[in-house]
Amino acid sequence: MSYTTINFRGVELDIKFDYQPEEPMVRYYSDGSGYPGCGAEMNIESITHKGTDMWDLVEVHIKEIENEALESYIEDNQPEY
Fold first, then answer.
1. Which of 21, 45, 65, 75 is most buried, with most CB under 10 Å away?
2. Residue-averaged pLDDT of the chain
3. Burial of 21 by CB count in 10 Å (0-12 exposed, 13-18 middle, 19+ buried)?
4. Angle of CA points 52, 12, 8, to nearest 5°
5. Number of structural domains, the chain?
6. Residue 13 — very low, low, confident or very high, per pLDDT cuts 50/70/90?
């Protein structure tokens, strides 16, 4: 389980979610097969504001929230070089 906080339309939301990182494409394995890869994926478990469940209030904006949360999580977890 992963967590991130976003500012959505002026309201700080705490997002709890499962995260599947991007899997790169493999053109060919030694047996001649390959793998097309897949993009990063997020499955939101809960959305709260100061401990209060906000799911029903923001459900119509779930894709926008999901995109912001995923972007925030990936940005916060980038390795520093």
1. 65
2. 90
3. exposed
4. 115
5. 1
6. very high
Whether residue 46 is contained in a domain is answered as yes
CA dihedral for 72, 74, 76, 78, sign (positive or negative): negative
Asked if residue 53 is part of any domain, the answer here is yes
Pure H helices in 1-81: 55-58, 62-76
CA distance 45 to 42: 9
Q: How many angstroms separate the Cα of 56 from the Cα of each of 6, 48, 52, 62?
A: 17, 10, 11, 10
Q: Is residue 9 a part of any domain in this protein?
A: yes
The residue range of the domain holding 71 is 2-76
pLDDT tens figures, 25-40: 888 888 878 888 888 8
Q: Is 19 within a domain? A: yes
